[in-house]
C-alpha cells in the first residue's frame, strides 16, 4: 500500500526535517506515528498526502509515485485517501450533510449515489440526527466525527489522521478511536499521528517513532515508554 525509500526532506531554510527514512505499510494496517514536537512526524504525514514533496527518495502510495507525480495527477491521487485534521477544517457555511456530500461532489460522484452514501457514513459516526446542523452548532467531538465522515465517504484505501484526538477530552477521544478502528477492521489502512500516550498504550497497533528526523522504532503493538 505504502512504501518510502531513503526519504529526506529539507526545507528552504536549510532545516533537514527527515533523514533517510524507509518503511513499508501493508494494506489494512493500523499505524501510530509518535515523536516529540519538531521530531518530523508532521512532515512524514504531509508527504504521505502530498502536501509536501520529498527532497530525495521515493514515496509510493498505491499506484502513485509521489516524488514524480505531476500536479494534474494530485486530485486523482487524493480521491483514494481520506485526511482527518486536528482542527477539523469544516466549511462553516455548509451543514453537516453538505460538508460530507461536498467530498463526493468534488470527485464528480453520481447525484443518485451521494445521498445514501452520506447518510450511511453519518450513521456510522453517530450523527444521523444532526445532518442539518452547522459546524458552530456542534461540539468539538461532533465536528471531528464530521471530519471523519468526510474522509471516508469516498471509501478510500487509506485514511491519514493528523492528531485527530488532540483537542478532545478523553471520553470523546475514545469515541473517535472506536470509529477509526471500525474503519480499519473493514480493510482501510489507517495512519495516525498522535501524542496521546493513553490511547497508544491501551489500544496497541504498529508503532512508528520519529526522533530527530529519523525512524528510531518500528514495533508491532509498541507502547509509549516513560522516556517518550
UniProtKB/TrEMBL annotation:
Its main location: membrane. Gene3D superfamilies: P-loop containing nucleotide triphosphate hydrolases. It comes from the Bacteria. Residues 2-228 form the ABC transporter domain. It is a peripheral membrane protein. One of its GO terms (cellular component) is plasma membrane. One of its GO terms (biological process) is cell division. Keywords: ATP-binding, Cell cycle, Cell division, Cell membrane, Membrane, Nucleotide-binding, Transport. Part of the ABC transporter FtsEX involved in cellular division. Has ATPase activity. Essential for cell division and viability. Homodimer. Forms a membrane-associated complex with FtsX. PANTHER family: CELL DIVISION ATP-BINDING PROTEIN FTSE (PTHR24220:SF470), IMPORT ATP-BINDING PROTEIN (PTHR24220). This is Cell division ATP-binding protein FtsE. It comes from Lacticaseibacillus camelliae DSM 22697 = JCM 13995.
Amino acid at each position: 500500500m505504502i512504501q518510502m525509500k531513503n526519504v529526506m526532506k529539507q526545507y528552504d531554510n536549510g532545516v533537514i526535517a527527515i533523514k533517510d527514512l524507509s518503511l513499508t505499510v501493508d494494506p489494512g494496517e493500523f499505524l501510530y506515528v509518535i515523536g516529540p514536537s519538531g521530531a518530523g512526524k508532521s512532515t512524514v504525514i504531509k508527504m504521505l498526502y502530498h502536501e509536501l514533496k520529498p527532497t530525495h527518495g521515493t514515496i509510493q502510495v498505491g499506484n502513485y509515485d509521489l516524488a514524480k507525480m505531476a500536479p494534474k495527477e494530485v486530485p486523482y491521487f487524493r480521491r483514494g485517501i481520506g485526511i482527518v485534521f486536528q482542527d477539523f477544517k469544516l466549511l462553516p457555511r455548509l451543514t453537516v450533510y453538505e460538508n460530507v456530500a461536498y467530498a463526493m461532489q468534488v470527485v464528480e460522484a453520481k447525484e443518485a449515489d451521494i445521498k445514501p452514501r452520506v447518510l450511511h457514513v453519518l450513521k456510522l459516526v453517530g450523527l444521523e440526527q444532526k445532518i442539518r446542523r452547522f459546524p458552530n452548532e456542534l461540539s468539538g467531538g461532533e465536528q471531528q466525527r464530521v471530519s471523519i465522515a468526510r474522509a471516508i465517504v469516498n471509501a478510500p484505501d487509506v485514511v491519514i489522521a493528523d492528531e485527530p484526538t488532540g483537542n478532545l477530552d478523553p471520553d470523546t477521544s475514545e469515541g473517535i478511536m472506536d470509529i477509526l478502528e471500525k474503519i480499519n477492521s473493514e480493510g482501510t489502512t489507517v495512519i495516525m499521528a498522535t501524542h496521546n500516550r493513553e490511547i497508544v498504550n491501551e489500544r496497541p497497533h504498529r508503532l512508528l517513532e520519529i526522533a530527530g528526523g529519523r525512524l528510531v522504532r518500528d514495533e508491532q503493538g509498541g507502547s509509549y515508554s516513560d522516556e517518550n
